[in-house]
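Reviewer 2 asked us to include a model.

Predict the structure of this chain.
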Amino acid sequence: MGELKRTTLPFTSLVGLEKLKLALILNGINPQIGGVLISGPKGTGKTTVVRALADLLPEVEVVVGCRFGCNPTNHDFLCAECRANLESGKKLKSEKRKMRVVNLPLSTTEDRLIGALDIERVLKEGIQALRPGILAETHQNVLYVDEVNLLPDHLVDDLLDAAATKINVIEREGISIAHPSDFVLIGTMNPEEGELRPQLLDRFPLHVAVGSHHSIEDRMELVRRNLAFEEDPDKFRNTWEDQQSELRKRIIQAKGILNDVILPDTNLRAIAMACDALEVDGVRPDIIISKAAITNAAFEGRMQVTLGDMKLASQLVLSHRTRRGGLLEPPSPDDVDQAVTKAAEVAQKTERKKSPTEVPEEDDDKSGPRLSGGRFGRGDKFATSGRQEGKKKLRKE
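Predicted model (structure tokens):
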């Protein structure tokens, strides 16, 4: 770990990329968000930011000696070894360790990713014969895939299965062994080098597009800090340690209040209505926006989600998602902000109408709240702008 610190710039010293840094921090606070896709041209600091995140990641609880890093507090999500020990009456000893960033090279083989089985040993020793792969190392950690759009299809399929079920299954010659694999998936890609399969694209909860446009002052400051770091890494890190410590403290405090942050029904209604207005595919975006909004409120030290939290979360969640079954491109940031703002206004009126002190108004077609021109979200510019047929590339900022 000492070598890593010497070769990685401190997270708080990185110039710009504020939205990307926030997206990574939110995943550190709440791993249940699930990850982020970072798109942009080469040389924009994508990999540098992810590597720097490792120093800020919080601790997680694991079973002592477990090869899969099981969480002893989650009895429904244990590997076969831990479950057998628990059922035999043994107490699962636990310890705390920091979350890690596990790298997935493009040259990885399938056996290295999911694990390998020696069939003869399996028949004699059971799960002990499994040689754990990268998906075992990533449980309760961060899985980082650089140039994820260039990953071979068969490895993408393995990642999709694990990301969807949070379980890794190794099957060989009729023998099947499974273990938990719940990880934060962070991927980087250069859109100019190829598109990402829609199935994998949808598995990235958040998305940030980074550009290569910096002001002259930012470029100068970036050079100054890189030169200072190369000249004396330890001195540079010490210079930024106070800022690093403060950010670590904020992350820990946010984790502490995360479960107590309130998402009022009015705000939840606004999120659902905005997603309906923008015609995003499926309900997954609604869930992720809610999680991200709650997490951002916790990071800001607030106990209730605000309109600002919903706008920020919606931009991070919707900027890479096609709509109307793939016929519409992702919404622009302005479209997202306006849709969420209008949805919040209508949701507040709806909640007031539901109050027992007021008589609900009748709606002619019973189809829900109205904006000018028809049912909310249908027929307005958010639902109709940007229609394009076929496959769509990630929107560049």
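The longest helix spans residues 333-354. DSSP finds 17 helices and 13 strands in the chain. We have added this to the supplementary material.
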